[in-house]
Design brief:
Layout (H helix, E strand, L loop, with lengths): L4 H12 L27 H23 L7 H17 L9 H12 L6 H7 L3 H16 L6 H13 L4 H8 L14 H11 L7 H14 L9 H18 L11 E5 L5 E2 L6 E3 L6 E3 L20 E2 H11 L1
Antiparallel strand pairs: 1-2, 1-3, 1-5, 3-4
Helix pairs in contact: 1-6, 1-12, 2-3, 2-4, 2-6, 2-7, 3-4, 6-7, 6-8, 7-11, 9-11, 10-11
Amino acid sequence: MGIGGAVLGGILGALVGGPVGGAMGALLGHSVDPMDNKKPRAPAQEQSRQARHILAGLASMLARVAHADREIDARERALILDICRNYAVQWGLGKFLASDAELEASVDVGIATPQAGELIIKRARTEPRMAMDLLHQLWRVAAGDGRIDDRERTVLGQLARELGLSDEQSAQVAMFFLRTEGMHGASTSRERRDAATVLGVSVSAAPEEVKRAYRALAMKWHPDRHPNNVKDAQERTASINHARDVLFAADAGPAGESLLAWSDGGNALVEPKPGDVVRCFLCETRNRLPAKEHLDTARCGRCQALVLYGAQLAQRLFAARH
């Protein structure tokens, strides 16, 4: 999956530009536009109800990821709440809520109802940038505990498809959060052979062949097609998704490629050292790097993205940022 500078710049723009302002607020009886006198306005009570419904739907989407591996803990709830607060501002919903406590209550309703996000999904399918940003937030929730397991990845794949995103778009977001290649920038020969076996292709298969094999298997083992054996279908789907990610890890660079960080000064790429302060390529937050054995999995404290990338991808990210 080669990604040129212009395309990568567009991906960064979709992920760091923030939620699309007014994207959902516009649903509230056109009340977000005080200059629009031609269209009827919903009563204040109805606007408030709709705002709470939108936030509950957003929280329910985020909760689907958090619920994938276990019950939601306090840290995950806090992250979901923070994401919903941000969207409430960007979407112009805050003015329709009486208090922050009302927002929290709406979020808790959504967390308890993990299938209530249809309104959000339906709107996002018409706005690709919004869909990409939502997938970014979903990956943040998955990475919130420092690790992303196969069950979470299965749910993320399902949500990406529901949002109308292609496999390529999904992978473009995932690459900021998931490292399949290990410390030296590429998957091992054994991992690539195993991945090829899962998909039924050769290790040297062309990208289009890998895509065809993946799509056929993903359709065959989609959990909805196996209502009497959902658990097995989910496990097979996770394995298929992982195999695709391994074989599409070409952007990580050749085997032996070192990881690079964005310097704290912001004007150079540097080799990471424990204790160094570096910037996040996505949100520019300053982060102090952990001990050597944890460098490979170091994540941004604010947006949960990885902070170190293989040299080729790091150079593309750096160029896109400048």
